[in-house]
Write a structure and sequence with these properties.
It is built from 13 helices and 24 strands. The chain is α+β, with helices and mostly antiparallel strands and 512 residues long. The strands form three sheets. Strands 1-2-3-5-4-6-7-8-9-10-11 form an eleven-stranded mixed sheet, with helices on both faces. Helix 3 crosses helix 4 and helix 4 crosses helix 9. The N and C termini lie far apart (54 Å). 52% of the residues are buried. Residues 294-506 form the Xaa-Pro dipeptidyl-peptidase C-terminal domain.
Length: 512
């Protein structure tokens, strides 16, 4: 039940800090909220200026992104308040003015979300039957996890987040060094990492395999995919959004997670890097992603029949598209209409520890350049040194090839060492031999018998890309990329072969 205005005033006076302002029909209050264990959470409440205990309003809770303060969402919070919502945004614990230590979406963070909801119900005219959570990046992950822990949450919008934390920063048993390094550095600058987080990062960067089970267990506890049954049981309407080039949380795990959700759901994938698709919306500028987010909340918290639930639940925008031209599909599995198998014949042997010139760009920058300038990472395929890169090319295609979904590589590898790393890249190659990166992914192996072949199956990061007519596809595999930590001993060699009994091939999902 919503508290009276008197009790709200009493509660605010008990906070260690409180301020208020009002403009254009919206009130803003800066408050401190007791989180799990009494940890102070710095927050703000944004609501219609005339909101009082005489009527209940739907509530939207917005946990902040990693390293950003609670004013991050102020522009969008005002828009929501103008539309009749009570909005509560708060600094996640361990960051900025909030107390505690950074728990990386651990149990205390999820308990905090419920404490924030409790406070809002006691101190604002929030409706207990119409509660939603939304967030960007870190806030997205916390929102999804909270939906599995708190059945009061009826709708979630999770933008540029993750479903499988281990699969995001440790895919193919390979450390995503730049992504983890960026998060670690930003956490130290703007917050107070927990001892557990510092230990996990030390183990992560040291490549200590004895700590791998601990890393996986730590990540699983923080992965919405591991809470799928509870999320489905609670039944929140969930909207997921991500960018094809997200260099921190690649889109694969969102797509897999989406397919397994049983409640109302929506998946939007678009060009860009981590959080770049939502950035202009944080500045208060027109933004398609945030507009769709508000429509989703309006539908499932306010009951508005705005048509968003009647649209195809999977919405994709090709990286080569101009404008906001989304394609609609009934499911993720229905996105490709055909799986084309490209044979990878012959044997290729390369020397490890040397960058061939093929790479996946720089964290945050590569996908942003692709989004805004249509310039993905480039490589001159004819000039790649064949001693450092294995290269296979198709013939030119007479018609456009619309790559949609997850490219998969199956090959046989032989190493003269017991451990190693390979990075696969798929390029769109034009008439002059310049390759534009379509997708990539790393894979690492350990404890292999030197000289003994073994099979490798690798899923590259999901994408949507239109290869023009007259172009060809090129698969390049090398051993070094600045985005990843590689595990090739000095002087190692990798051989890629295609045995008759188990031929190598690339599976390319395409749409007619």
């Amino acid at each position: 039940m919503a508290a009276s205005s008197d009790s709200a005033s009493d509660s605010d006076s008990a906070s260690s800090a409180s301020a208020s302002s009002s403009s254009s029909g919206v009130s803003i209050r800066f408050v401190d909220i007791p989180g799990d264990g009494g940890v102070k959470l710095a927050a703000n409440v944004v609501a219609p200026a005339d909101a009082d205990a005489s009527r209940r309003l739907p509530l939207v809770v917005l946990p902040t992104s990693w390293s950003l303060p609670q004013v991050e969402y102020l522009a969008q919070a005002k828009k929501l308040a103008e539309a009749g919502y009570v909005v509560l945004t708060y600094n996640s614990r361990g960051f900025w003015q909030s107390g505690g230590r950074i728990e990386t979406a651990g149990p205390p963070d999820i308990a905090d979300a419920s404490k924030v909801i409790d406070w809002a119900l006691a101190n604002t005219p929030a409706d207990p039957d119409h509660i939603g959570m939304a967030g960007l990046s870190y806030g997205a992950g916390i929102s999804l996890l909270a939906a599995g822990a708190d059945p009061r949450i009826r709708a979630v919008v999770a933008m540029s987040g993750w479903a499988d934390l281990v699969g995001s920063i440790y895919s193919g048993r390979t450390q995503h060094a730049q992504a983890a390094g960026l998060l670690a550095g930003a956490g130290e600058l703007t917050g107070r990492p927990s001892d557990e987080l510092r230990q996990i990062l030390d183990d992560f960067f040291s490549s200590d395999l004895t700590k791998e089970p601990d890393l996986i267990a730590w990540g699983k506890k923080r992965s919405p995919a591991a809470q799928l049954d509870r999320i489905n049981a609670n039944g929140a309407a969930i909207m997921l959004g991500n960018s094809w080039g997200d260099s921190i949380f690649p889109p694969n795990s969102y797509a897999d997670f989406f397919e397994k959700l049983t409640g109302p759901k929506r998946l939007e994938l678009r060009p860009g890097d981590h959080a770049t698709a939502e950035l202009t919306g944080l500045l208060g500028l027109p933004n398609t992603t945030w507009s769709h987010a508000r429509q989703w909340l309006d539908r499932y918290l306010k009951g508005e029949r705005n048509g968003i639930d009647a649209q195809a639940p999977v919405r994709l925008m090709s990286r080569t598209a101009r404008g906001d031209d989304y394609e609609g599909y009934p499911s993720w599995s229905a996105v490709p209409s055909e799986q084309r198998r490209v044979p990878l014949a012959g044997t290729e042997k390369i020397t490890a520890n040397h960058d061939s010139g093929a790479n996946a760009g720089t964290v945050l920058l590569g996908g942003a350049l692709d989004q805004f300038l249509k310039v993905p990472p480039l490589a001159s395929i004819p000039l790649l040194p064949r001693s450092r890169a294995a290269v296979w090319q198709t013939g030119t295609s007479a018609r456009e090839q619309r790559v949609r979904g997850t490219v998969k590589l199956h090959t046989t590898v032989t190493s003269d060492r017991s451990a190693g790393t390979a990075v696969a890249y798929l390029y769109d190659v034009g008439p002059l031999g310049v390759g534009k990166l379509i997708t990539n992914a790393p894979v690492t192996f350990h404890d292999r018998t030197p000289g003994t072949p073994f099979g490798v199956d690798l899923e590259l990061f999901s994408t949507a890309y239109d290869v023009p007519a007259g172009h060809r596809l090129a698969l390049v595999v090398d051993t070094v990329d600045p985005l990843y930590i590689e595990h090739n001993p000095d002087g190692a060699h990798l051989t890629f072969s295609s045995p008759a009994a188990d031929p190598s091939y690339l599976t390319v999902p395409v749409r007619d």
